[in-house]
């Protein structure tokens, strides 16, 4: 189909997916970056790449029944979105959270296409999950849910077809239960999930990879602009997997992390979160129901209930919790407090208006699909270790992770630089798009 303008295209997307607001937001961002670029290549237009790239190849929606400890029979909705296999098997995490719905998972799977492309590895885009809340559930209930979820998912995935991983609400424990059930059903020990325990096929450094990779990316952004993380004050949101390891790496590189949060509020520690204090958080959050306010009780610092940490004065902000957790007011507050860099550990944590604010104010802004790609990059490295059956040492994985984050930064510079500013949003979107679009053209209209 031909469109008169970008606005015309986006109007059609708005109308068609009106009940998938996060998906519309993600498409809007990508199309705004790639519209002019894609119209300079007649092949992209002739092959109608833009219309094709926004429609998933396949979506599975299924019933997940499970029995609670009190004997009650519950049911949740499970999903797997296989969005694009242009450059490799579908790859992307599973999210267990009550807010999960089709629009949220479609936005995540869409983002994943470009993120995976940026890593330079052979991974297509996918995402899945369920509206199940692991908080407050016993171990047995979580196992029952994971097994039931896999009772359907197993027929759609495979080490060369679709390789899910973790996301919000899905960590090493859940991956273990799902892997066990897959193996039982298929009688096949294969690298069908990533984020596995290293005892049975997982990669060293996978739990750390998203948070560490984020800080490596920030370091690249800063050194490109002749600055350093050393001595900088950093506000981090969330206190789960990504936040914990981002915090650890910032501490190691000489920065001072002053906040962490969860859905109940944030803690502010002006002295800085030390490695010892972080270890307390890591232990605490092994239980998903534990609240970050316990940090404030333990270390006698401030807990601000029901708020997000963006009102705190900082040089660097790393939103690492969830989508749309940083809005235009937060963005204004951050810039007026002197923040110079924002990099997204979470997927799409900044609203569209917040992103515009950062770009208009020439704040260094690292979008999630570039800045948090370290997790999926190490998942790709886990897949290759599973294929060769040769595990890598932690240091070897770290070297690869650093070099992938450096390459992603260079891609952003290549496609996003103008004379006086690097627009990392355009850089990441165009850089991720080119490889996928060219591969689609090579493979014909399928
Ligand atoms: P976890 O489940 O380990 O932690 C999530 C954290 O975010 C928790 O502190 C949680 O608080 C908080 N949170 C979740 N939902 C909300 C909400 N609606 N409002 C406020 N806080 C919330 O997840 P991860 O650390 O793995 O993931 C965090 C983000 O990073 C997500 O956007 C994810 O998609 C993204 N990401 C993760 C990768 C990975 O490798 N894990 C890879 C790339 C991106 P509470 O406990 O109160 O719910």
What global shape is seen?
globular
CATH topology of the largest domain: Rossmann fold
- Structure class: alpha/beta
| N-to-C SSE string, H for helix and E for strand | HHHHEEEHEHEHHEHEEHHEEHEHEHHHH
Spatial ordering of strands, largest sheet: 9-8-7-6-10-11-12
Largest sheet features: 7 strands, mixed
Low-confidence stretches: none
Radius of gyration: 21 Å
CATH architecture of the largest domain: 3-Layer(aba) Sandwich
Oligomer: single chain
What are the defining features of this structure?
single chain, 446 residues, alpha/beta, Rossmann fold, 3 domains, 5-stranded mixed sheet, 17 helices, binds NADPH dihydro-nicotinamide-adenine-dinucleotide phosphate
Describe the overall structure.
The protein is 48% helix and 15% strand. It has 17 helices and 12 strands. 51% of the residues are buried. The two termini are 17 Å apart. It has helices at residues 6-16, 21-38, 42-46, 49-53, 102-118, 139-153, 172-186, 206-224, 241-252, 275-284, 293-299, 328-336, 352-360, 368-371, 374-388, 394-416, 424-442; strands at residues 58-67, 73-84, 90-96, 124-130, 162-165, 233-236, 256-262, 265-268, 302-305, 316-318, 341-343, 364-366. The chain has 3 domains: 6-53, no CATH class; 58-189, 3-Layer(aba) Sandwich (Rossmann fold); 209-371, NAD(P)-binding Rossmann-like Domain (Rossmann fold, 3-Layer(aba) Sandwich), CATH 3.40.50.720. By secondary structure, the protein is α/β, with parallel strands linked by helices. The chain has a 7-stranded mixed beta sheet with strand order 9-8-7-6-10-11-12, sandwiched between helices. It has a 5-stranded mixed beta sheet with strand order 1-2-4-3-5. Residues 166-169, 210, 238-242, 262-264, 288, 320-322, 325, 345-347, 372, 375 line the site of NADPH dihydro-nicotinamide-adenine-dinucleotide phosphate.
């Amino acid at each position: 189909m031909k469109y008169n303008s970008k606005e015309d295209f986006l109007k059609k997307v708005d109308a068609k997916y009106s009940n998938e607001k996060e998906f519309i937001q993600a498409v809007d961002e990508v199309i705004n970056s790639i519209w002019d670029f894609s119209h300079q290549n007649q092949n992209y237009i002739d092959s109608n790449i833009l219309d094709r790239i926004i429609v998933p190849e396949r979506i599975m929606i299924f019933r997940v029944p499970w029995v609670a400890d009190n004997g009650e029979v519950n049911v949740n909705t499970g999903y797997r979105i296989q969005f694009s296999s242009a450059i490799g098997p579908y790859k992307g995490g599973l999210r267990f959270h009550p807010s999960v719905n089709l629009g949220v998972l479609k936005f995540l799977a869409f983002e994943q296409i470009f993120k995976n492309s940026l890593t330079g590895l052979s991974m297509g885009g996918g995402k899945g999950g369920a509206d199940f809340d692991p908080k407050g559930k016993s171990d047995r209930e979580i196992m029952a849910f994971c097994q039931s979820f896999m009772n359907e998912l197993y027929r759609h995935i495979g080490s060369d077809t679709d390789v899910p991983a973790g996301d919000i609400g899905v960590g090493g424990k859940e991956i273990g239960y799902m892997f066990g059930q897959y193996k039982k059903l298929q009688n096949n020990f294969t690298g069908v999930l990533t984020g596995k325990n290293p005892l049975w096929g997982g990669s060293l450094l996978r739990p750390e990879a998203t948070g560490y990779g984020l800080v490596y990316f920030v370091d690249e952004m800063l050194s490109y602009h002749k600055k350093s993380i050393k001595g900088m004050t950093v506000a981090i949101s969330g206190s789960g997997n990504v936040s914990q390891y981002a915090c650890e790496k910032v501490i190691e590189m000489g920065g001072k992390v002053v906040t962490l949060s969860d859905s109940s509020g944030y803690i502010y520690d002006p002295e800085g979160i030390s490695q010892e204090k972080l270890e307390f958080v890591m232990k605490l959050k092994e239980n998903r129901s534990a609240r970050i306010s316990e940090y404030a009780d333990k270390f006698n610092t401030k807990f601000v209930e029901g708020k997000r940490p963006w009102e705190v004065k900082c040089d660097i902000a790393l939103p690492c919790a969830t989508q749309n957790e940083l809005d235009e007011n937060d963005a204004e507050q951050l810039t007026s407090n002197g923040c110079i860099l924002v990099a997204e550990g979470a997927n799409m944590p900044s609203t569209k208006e917040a992103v515009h604010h950062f770009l208009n104010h020439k704040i260094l802004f690292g979008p999630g699909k570039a800045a948090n790609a370290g997790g999926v990059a190490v998942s790709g490295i886990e897949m290759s270790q599973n294929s060769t059956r040769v595990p890598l040492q932690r240091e070897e994985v770290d070297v690869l992770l650093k070099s992938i984050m450096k390459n992603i930064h260079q891609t952003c510079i290549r496609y996003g630089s103008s004379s006086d500013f690097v627009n990392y949003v355009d850089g990441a979107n165009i850089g991720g798009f080119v490889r996928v679009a060219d591969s689609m053209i090579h493979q014909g209209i399928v």
